[in-house]
Each structure stands twice: as structure tokens, then as C-alpha cells.
Amino acid sequence: MEQIFAICRVAVAPIRASSADQAEITTQLLFGDQVEVLEKAEPWWRIRNAYDGYEGWIDFKQLGTLTQTEYEACKQRTALVPAAVSNQVIAADGSTYYLAASGNLPAYSNGYCKLGKEEFQVLFEPHDISAQTTGLKLVDSALFYLNAPYLWGGRTLFGIDCSGYVQAVFALYGIALHRDASQQAAQGEVVNFLPEAQTGDLAFFDNADGKIIHVGIMLNANQIIHASGKVRIDAIDDQGIYNPELGRYSHKLRIIKRFINPTPTP
User: Which intervals hold domain NlpC/P60 (predicted)?
Assistant: First the structure.
């Protein structure tokens, strides 16, 4: 099959494990995410997300086609949808789209972005990822999602999973994380001991078989914000995350990784 490239032209689109409406949602595309089309089985296309390499099936009507030149240009993620509730863009026909935080605004200039040949007026100030990142800034964005419900495969304020959560937050600061917690655990620099953890570090947790199954963002060496039931703040120690509602440890600590420079001491 000839190379075909496309871009997500709706606010959020489900990516499924197989070509059926009943299939498991494994992740989501957000507005402006560009993909390579790997296979067609109308109305389903199997795609690969250019941002994190994740593959799955999507209804092709939620995509707009791109030339290879447009596809390559869209990879330059400099203007993103900020961590705010009412992010609106207006299509050429006058209709409104409400976008999720960390979505891409390709070819943004003078209040407009372009998805291939489609132009959208942007009614908000884009998030500029070029600013210097600190742990405190990152956590400020992480707190935007507080109480967002857990949703397997989700990437938005209205439903998000643990790895989708940290991926979205880090994307706002130009740090590209893989999609799954087990993949993310292979990135970053190891923090040897929990007391050395800094604001913005990622903590990873494993199951009885030693597989990484969970991830969260360290607020400090004693607290973590993570998506478990909802995005919540819990205590953490050498054993793992302690959930006071359950009255027990919910996740067993495996490793801590650092992706940004340590937070400066005031």
C-alpha cells in the first residue's frame, strides 16, 4: 500500500485494538495528532501515531488526509492546547470544536492553525512549549487534572489513564513520553532513593510478576499525584502508594525516573 498520512480532525478520537466499534479502546488521538496509515479495512484504518508510535484502529472519518510534506511539518509541536477547560477553535464553516489539553495546533500563526488544507481560528492563547521547564511548572499543569475520572486508554480531563496522564502533562513541556507505563519506565534517568525524589520525577510501580503497570508524578518525596480511580494525591513511601480510602497500599514501588533538571531550592 502506498504511504498515506493523516491527522486527527476532531477533539478526541478513540483508537481500538481491532476494527470494530465494540473493540477495546487502547488510546485516543487528540486534535492535531498526525498518523501514518498502515492498513485499510473500510471504514477502519490501522494507524501509527507519529508522536508515540502507538498503533491501532480508527474510523477514517475522524481523520483528514495529509501530504507527506504536511505530515512532516505537523511534527513540529511548538503550539499546544493549554491546560484549561474551554479551549475553542472555529472551523471554516463557523462550527466550534472544544479541544483537550496537550492537543497539537499545527502550523499555528496569528491566531490560526491548519490541519492540512483545513484552517481553524484559535480562540485562546496556545501553550508555548519553548519556555524553560521546572518541576513546579510541570506539577502546576498536573494539578489541572485533579479528580479527572480514570478511563483505560483515556487522554483527556473527562477520562484518563495513568500513563496517558503523565504523557499529556509532560507533552506540555516538550518532553515526549511513550504511551504505556512500561515503555515510559525505560526513559529518563534513575533516581536511586526515594528521599532523593524531586518535584516532577516519575515513580513507576510493578505487579507480582515484576511488570510495570502504573506511573505517577512526584509532588515531593512523600506525595504523588496519579490516575487511580480518579486523578488523586496520595502518600508514598518505600513500599509504594498508600490509599487511605482503601486502608492499604494500592501500588508497589519499583523505580523512580527523572526527566527534567532538579527543582531549584528557594
Answer: 132-260
The helix/strand/coil state of 91 is coil
Per the confidence metrics, is the pTM higher than 0.90?
Answer: yes
CATH of the domain at 41: 2.30.30.40
Contact at 8 Å (CB) between 202 and 257?
yes
Which residue bears the cell 485516543? 28
pLDDT in tens, the chain (266 residues): 679 999 999 999 999 999 999 999 999 999 999 999 999 998 999 999 999 999 999 999 999 999 998 898 877 888 999 999 999 999 999 999 999 999 999 999 999 999 988 999 999 999 988 767 888 889 999 999 999 999 999 999 999 999 999 999 999 999 999 999 999 999 999 999 999 999 999 999 999 999 999 999 999 999 999 999 999 999 999 999 999 999 999 999 999 999 997 654 44
* 68 and 180 both lie in a single domain: no
